[in-house]
């Protein structure tokens, strides 16, 4: 039985604390905007300071000047917007059979062409030993959610590449969009053989897009990163050579308000807690993008010529992060095609790319779909001679005791 009275009290406390944090956050955001404009004329010097610094934070490595604005050009007509998204049903180790399902939704919407949109939903069932218990780093274990998510991402990109090759035969400009990051962050903690396997497939897929001159990008809604803010924090630091491990401004905590210990504020912390999205929401106009930048994550060193570059886009109701391989950012016509097509898509989708919304609708597996999947599975097993065995925990949840 849920204690809703207790939950209500905790929610009230949360609202009070977040109200106070909002007021403090507003002051920090104003300071961050001031620092952005202060450093804009000397962004290259700040970039060099950031490159030479030693911090525990990820830092943006800018490729373009901070001062010019980057408005979009007119929508590229004709063009074809491609998108892919995925959903999955995770393996249930308490069920009577171990398996999982990945559903890839794909959409192609041609603009300025006589062709009709194309929609697809392609489910794939995984049940073999090598799918369920992959061996990496000399260890075999049940597939984890992050490895399954990486497999789904590769399947999404493969579908996009297949469709891009089909539409490229019509000699029409194409933009390919995926939902989420193109940076496989979980790889950093994975064994070398798994890293090599994933990166080899990623590089091969990006090679296919580059051969077609099709800009491929990952669209991240409501990003929470602070790589740009962290560069500003490096700039605010009075030290010429920044080394956070030997910060001379760190002081022992002081006791205030009875038993509370408060850490003195460091010079760089005057804008700590501000997100890149909040910063660019205050700087960019509708449809504009930020200067492009690279992340300093070590995993990107393994991407080769496809090192990921990003920019922030003012999409109307939110600031989105857009990621693409470096060869897209290095090719001004491709970069501009991607930018203008994204602005066109978010306008058509009322703040979110229309083609990604449609791909999500093709991919999503709702609660009713999952229930029917397991019902169908149970019926098929019941019709066969295979045993229906579930764990005691699974059976216990189906039988109410009180």
Short description:
Helices cover 42% and strands 18% of the residues.
Descriptive account of the structure:
By secondary structure, this protein is of the alpha+beta class. It has two domains: 29-58 and 236-273, no CATH class; 79-225 and 275-367, archaeoglobus fulgidus dsm 4304 fold (2-Layer Sandwich), CATH 3.30.2170. 42% of the residues lie in helices and 18% in strands. The protein has twelve helices and 13 strands. It has helices at residues 4-39, 43-52, 129-132, 145-168, 192-212, 227-236, 276-283, 326-329, 332-348, 354-363, 367-383, 392-398; strands at residues 60-62, 79-89, 100-111, 118-126, 135-136, 139-140, 174-179, 216-220, 254-256, 260-262, 293-295, 308-314, 319-325. The strands form three sheets. Strands 1-11-12-13-8-7-2-3-4 form a nine-stranded mixed beta sheet, with helices on both faces. A two-stranded antiparallel sheet has the order 5-6. Strands 9-10 form a two-stranded antiparallel ribbon. The N and C termini lie close together (11 Å).
Jot down its keywords.
402 residues; archaeoglobus fulgidus dsm 4304 fold; 2 domains; nine-stranded mixed β-sheet; two-stranded antiparallel ribbon; 13 strands; disordered C terminus
List the helices and strands and how they pair.
Elements: H1 4-39, H2 43-52, E1 60-62, E2 79-89, E3 100-111, E4 118-126, H3 129-132, E5 135-136, E6 139-140, H4 145-168, E7 174-179, H5 192-212, E8 216-220, H6 227-236, E9 254-256, E10 260-262, H7 276-283, E11 293-295, E12 308-314, E13 319-325, H8 326-329, H9 332-348, H10 354-363, H11 367-383, H12 392-398
Parallel strand pairs: 2-7, 7-8
Antiparallel strand pairs: 1-11, 2-3, 3-4, 5-6, 8-13, 9-10, 11-12, 12-13
Helix pairs in contact: 1-6, 2-6, 4-5
